[in-house]
């Protein structure tokens, strides 16, 4: 595997479910990011991790819980989501100090029913 | 934060050059100009960045106006694979700042 991978690619979940999105980067980077892309809206940064430490939480509701166990893996744990949380969730990575050059995964298309 | 203005959409014929404009009249002296693109059903990908001088790489060229209030991303010979949304983004002086995406320009390539 090369680049940034995300699993699953598609996810349908009910409002009472708990699920997790996974991101893995094979680029040797040490910064990782979660973005949300809703229909007809710009990408919104959700979380930033540098060297496994969360350095940015962009006022994201607590029903989204990130986890970064090491520099290569990033998770987004989801629970009691709302239909308006349906979106494309994108993971990205970069070298710390070069956040202008981020490498994105293909995203997870999430539908909350 | 300095803002960018891009046309919502553009069309171009296949195998012809494409010039994608971006206005950034409130750019500060140390803001870099970055371009990303997002192909259908994919995450964004980094294209190019510059500060003052024009820049070239294997994907595109970036022409920056002398007063830096505007820039143009140039695809020298568009292919169908270049159909995407192109984002012009400012900032990231320190290298650890966040990317702020706008709505970009949706480029359609006509065969």
Observed structural traits:
heterodimer, A: 113 residues, mainly beta, seven-stranded mixed β-sheet, four-stranded antiparallel β-sheet, 0% helix, 57% strand, B: 111 residues, five-stranded mixed β-sheet, 9 strands, globular
Give the topology, please.
The complex is a heterodimer of chains A (113) and B (111).
Chain A: E1 4-7, E2 10-13, E3 18-25, E4 31-37, E5 44-50, E6 53-57, E7 64-70, E8 73-79, E9 87-94, E10 103-104, E11 108-112
Parallel strand pairs in A: 2-11
Antiparallel strand pairs in A: 1-3, 3-8, 4-5, 4-9, 5-6, 7-8, 9-10, 9-11
Chain B: E1 9-13, E2 18-23, E3 32-38, E4 44-50, E5 55-56, E6 61-64, E7 70-75, E8 84-91, E9 105-110
Parallel strand pairs in B: 1-9
Antiparallel strand pairs in B: 2-7, 3-4, 3-8, 5-6, 6-7, 8-9
Overview of this protein structure:
The complex is a heterodimer of chains A (113) and B (111). Chain A has strands spanning 4-7, 10-13, 18-25, 31-37, 44-50, 53-57, 64-70, 73-79, 87-94, 103-104, 108-112. Chain A has 113 residues and is mainly β. Chain A is 0% helix and 57% strand. Chain A has no helices and eleven strands. Chain A is globular. In chain A, strands 2, 4, 5, 6, 9, 10 and 11 form a seven-stranded mixed β-sheet that branches. Chain B is mainly β. Chain B has strands at residues 9-13, 18-23, 32-38, 44-50, 55-56, 61-64, 70-75, 84-91, 105-110. In chain B, the strands form two sheets. Chain B has a five-stranded mixed β-sheet with strand order 1-9-8-3-4, with no helix packed on it. A four-stranded antiparallel β-sheet of chain B has the order 2-7-6-5, with no helix packed on it. In chain B, a hairpin with a 5-residue loop joins β3 and β4. The model of chain B has no long low-confidence stretch (mean pLDDT 91). The chains are: A mainly beta (113), B mainly beta (111). Chain A binds chain B through residues 4, 31, 42-43, 45, 48, 50, 56, 90-92, 96-107, and chain B through 32, 34, 41-46, 49, 92, 95-104.
